[in-house]
Give the backbone structure.
Amino acid sequence: MTQQAFGEEAPKQYKIDPLNDQALQNVMKNILNQMEEAVQQGESLTSEYMVQLSQQLDAYVLIAQIRKMRCVN
């Protein structure tokens, strides 16, 4: 099952706009820490929980990349 967000759904779903760069980085670190903890507890990389965390991280990485591209332009 994949999670998709289009148009106005993406900012609402992940509350992207109000996050400053430091907050965005903190959220991403938090997700990584959750993933590391889950792996240490024996969670499979293909488990539903790990997939959800990975999808969340992917969304925030995409946001960071878009912001970086906007700064370069």
Observations:
- The chain has a mean pLDDT of 81.
- Residues 39 and 45 are 7 Å apart (CA to CA).
- The helical segments are 9-14, 21-40, 48-72.
- The radius of gyration is 14 Å.
